[in-house]
Design goal:
The complex is a heterodimer.
Chain A: E1 4-7, E2 10-13, E3 19-25, E4 31-38, E5 42-49, E6 56-57, E7 65-67, E8 73-78, E9 87-94, E10 102-104, E11 108-112
Parallel strand pairs in A: 2-11
Antiparallel strand pairs in A: 1-3, 3-8, 4-5, 4-9, 5-6, 7-8, 9-10, 9-11
Chain B: E1 4-7, E2 10-14, E3 19-25, E4 31-37, E5 43-48, E6 52-56, E7 59-64, E8 69-74, E9 83-90, E10 99-101, E11 105-110
Parallel strand pairs in B: 2-11
Antiparallel strand pairs in B: 1-3, 3-8, 4-5, 4-9, 6-7, 7-8, 9-10, 9-11
Classes of the chains: A mainly beta, B mainly beta.
């Protein structure tokens, strides 16, 4: 069974602070994604990666950085967190060469005060 | 505007009724997927459907790529079907990248 694990699951941060959300996948998938989910917006793509060392901007990258140090790990970094970044963040992995399906983590709820 | 439009936004049915969810895409796409999300939970792929009709139990997905639309039909709905159903499209020619989601249809099945 494909597995995507996110940490932390819940995080409270202060405005201006640095936040790092981590994602680990054991699927050996090349592609990994970070989305945020807000009421009325569905999931919006922040950053994604084709493999270790690569990061690409998604549809709403402003205020976020990403890091893919290995096949298994993909991090989302908020250097200066703002209240507008309060949201639920989902990580996903996928490999179109195999099934085309996406596998999601359980989500990380971030509150920026 | 939104590239992925889902309708209806919400749907309330009695247990046993059939549900029909729609997804329309404003741009060309390579493939699409349907996901189920339980309240407060993660997303699980229901169908990966590049084209045509797929069935799994009481769920049937029909995608017509050329017409940029897809539907999800749930027959004889059950209370456990309640949750949010999201569709997503893959815009890339080579698959599984830049996947864009709709806002979802919230389905509530009442006893």
């Amino acid at each position: 069974e494909a597995a995507v694990t996110q940490s932390p699951r819940n995080k409270v941060a202060v405005t201006g602070g640095k936040v790092t959300l981590s994602c680990n996948q054991t699927n050996n998938h090349n592609n990994m994604y970070w989305y945020r989910q807000d009421t009325g917006h569905g999931l919006r793509l922040i950053h994604y990666s084709y493999g270790a060392g690569s990061t690409e901007k998604g549809d709403i990258p402003d205020g976020y950085k990403a890091s893919r140090p290995s096949q298994e790990n993909f991090s989302l970094i908020l250097e200066l967190a703002t209240p507008s970044q309060t949201s639920v963040y989902f990580c996903a992995s996928g490999d179109h060469r195999v099934t085309g399906q996406l596998y999601f983590g359980e989500g990380s709820k971030l509150t920026v005060l | 505007g939104q590239q992925v439009q889902q309708s209806p936004t919400s749907l309330v049915l009695q247990e046993g009724e059939n549900a029909e969810l729609q997804c329309n895409f404003s741009t060309s796409l390579n493939s699409m997927q349907w996901f189920y999300q339980r309240p407060g939970g993660s997303l699980v792929s229901v169908f990966y459907n590049p084209s045509g009709t797929k069935q799994s139990g009481r769920l049937t997905s029909t995608t017509v790529i050329k017409e940029r639309r897809s539907s999800l039909h749930i027959s004889s709905s059950q209370i456990t079907d309640s949750g949010t159903y999201l569709c997503a499209m893959d815009r890339a020619n080579y698959g599984n990248e830049k996947i864009t989601f709709g806002a979802g249809t919230k389905l509530t099945i009442k006893p």
